[in-house]
């Protein structure tokens, strides 16, 4: 049974930084695509960043240059460092995993999800 547990997040003013983490269990995350998705208030969930089993990263255009996704295979933990945050980055941030090495930013490709952690950016 795959389990994903997010932590971190919180509230910050625009221009600030936050980090979120995702502890994975139930499989070897090093060989598995993992990613971060978010759901802004009143909107659909969208892809933010993913990292493949080969370590290849992909980012949504809206976060390129500001967010960094990384994975610690020894700790089975996924991270998302968010800098230069904007109010439009506000939302529930979800960790996700899929049972393949390759990655996309399409949430339909992911079968495992965490409960989410809230990120709020005030102007």
Keywords:
123 residues, mainly beta, seven-stranded mixed beta sheet, four-stranded antiparallel beta sheet, 0% helix, globular
Summarize, please:
By secondary structure, the protein is mainly β. Helix content is 0%, strand content 49%. The protein has strands at 3-8, 10-13, 18-25, 34-39, 46-51, 57-59, 67-72, 77-82, 91-97, 112-113, 117-122.
Supply the number of helical segments: 0
Distance between the termini: 40 Å
Overall geometry comes to: globular
The proportion of residues in beta strands is: over 45%
The description of the largest β-sheet is: 7 strands, mixed
Whole-number mean pLDDT: 94
Calculate Rg over CA atoms. 13 Å
Unreliable stretches:
none
Q: Roughly what percent helix?
A: under 10%
> Got a strand count?
11
Please trace the helix and strand order, writing H or E for each element. Answer: EEEEEEEEEEE
Q: Structural class, judged by helices and strands?
A: mainly beta
Quaternary state of this entry equals single chain
